[in-house]
Amino acid sequence: MSSFRSEPFLWIHLTGIVLVPLWLEIVWLGLSIGTPLLWFWLELLLLAVVGILPILWMQLVRPFDIFSILLFSVKPEQLSSEQRQILAQFKTRSHRIVSIITAIMMILILWFLDSFAPLLIPINPWSQGWHLIGLIIAAVSLLASNLFLQVPVSVLRILLSNQASLAATEPLPSDQIAREFTIPGFWIDSILAKEQLG
Known about the structure:
By secondary structure, the chain is mainly alpha-helical. Helix content is 60%, strand content 4%. The chain has one domain (4-197).
């Protein structure tokens, strides 16, 4: 078996983490718009429910299928045995633990951003706008930042595991992938040249 670390989809999704700071900056800007409508803890709870809980639920129940790019996903039946072993790693207990820890970290980051949101008011041109719009911007951006953090962290956990552990993993049956994973976009036979060569 070749090293699973040469799987390009792992590295493609790992690089998604570079977008997290950008999305968090937009969350921060959104929180600094207008005057808070509710108690700060209630706003944070609502933001967490909208921006963190859905991605956490996905990762716990139907993890994101990493064999996809943008609007296209590799058909489950086209995945190799090694690729299905990688997918099986997303259904393990350790994956769920890492997803929960990541979600808790995101809640702490949200609290931090909200605490320091007043610092942006002097430089935010929309600071006098409607706070509800700011909350919507913050919620959508938090959802995106959570997605671009959860998936790379899960991929990193796999990259840090050893070859023997993956080799001992039972490949996930192709006919289970569609109901066990969140598969975005259109299904196609191949995305990367490596798959065509394999």
